[in-house]
Amino acid sequence: MESGITNLKALRKICYGLYVVSSVRNEKLNGQIANTVFQITSTPATIAVSINKQNLTHEFIKESKVFTVSVLAKEASMKFIGHFGFKSGRKIDKFSEVNYKLGVTNAPIVLEYSIAYLEAEVVSTVDVGTHTIFIGTIVDADILNEGEPMTYAYYHTVKKGKSPKTAPTYIAEKNQKEENKMKKYRCTVCGYVYDPEVGDPDSGVNPGTSFEQLPDNWVCPVCGVEKTEFEEE
Ligand code: FE
Fold first, then answer.
1. Ligand 1 centroid, distance to 194 Cα (angstroms)
2. What is the pLDDT of residue 179?
3. What pLDDT is attached to residue 47?
4. I need a labelling partner for 233 at 20 to 30 A (CA). Which of 55, 101, 104, 145 fits?
5. Partner residues linked to 73 by β-bridges
6. Dihedral (C-alpha) 63, 165, 78, 175: value to the nearest 10 degrees?
7. Which candidate, 205, 208, 232, 233, places its Cα nearest to that of 219?
8. pLDDT value at position 178?
9. How far is the centre of ligand 1, averaged over its atoms, from the C-alpha of 161 (Å)?
């Protein structure tokens, strides 16, 4: 038997989706990207979400005891995911530029890139150190359209998405040097990697565009910072 090397990349083989988990406090709305949403029981229909205690959405759910889950479609853009995943509701009103409706709990339901939603009332919480698991019974739910859900694997492998350090599934990654002709650049703020072979189709940048060729007004598609915040991978 090999000597015990724990390879945490095995955790990446667990399947997840990608969701916007939202809540409300005194009519203020906030939401964040989460991948850890799962159904626990069917009678009554009950779901759980794991939310980082540092996040504003955590405060909102703790106080209002309600949350919504918007199930993201495969087509969800990196910009959209970055808007909810890498920005803080303490600095911006995330819902000011997003199409949404209020659910029966008064928490917002995202209507863009969303194929279904669930609304829940918290019935139990589990303190798991950095995160709280909120367990809620479903009070409303519906399908919004027939698209395919985004899986976390698709987000990582096809969309080249990264996890913020506050995500429950974050794994610290070492920089990997590659002897590519066109160099990859990493956003020092969110960890997004610009890969010239992939380009940034969401922002109209074709595959094969080197980092140097990117226009000066190009910004990180995930967190929105400028080119100067990038460094060679
Ligand atoms: Fe970024």
1. 10
2. 40
3. 98
4. 55
5. 149
6. 180
7. 205
8. 40
9. 10
Using the mean position of ligand 1's atoms as its centre, give its distance from the Cα of residue 221 in Å. Answer: 7
Give distance in angstroms: CA of 20 to centre of ligand 1: 19
The rounded Å distance from CA 134 to ligand 1 centre is: 29
Position 12 scores a pLDDT of 79
Outline where the chain has alpha helix (H): 56-64, 78-85, 152-157
Cα–Cα distance, 163 to 12 (Å, whole number): 12
- For residue 153, how far is its CA from the centre of ligand 1 (angstroms)? 20
Task: Give the number of residues written for the chain.
Answer: 233
Taking the centre of ligand 1 as the mean of its atom positions, its distance from the CA of residue 187, in whole angstroms, is 5
Residue 39 to residue 211: CA distance in whole angstroms: 42
Coil, strand or helix at 24? strand
Average pLDDT for runs of 10 along the chain of length 233: 77 91 96 96 97 97 98 91 89 94 98 97 98 98 95 79 78 49 86 91 90 91 87 90
Beta bridge partners of 132: 51, 127
Decide: 103 and 119 in contact? Cβ < 8 Å: yes
Dist. CA 126 → ligand 1 center (Å): 32
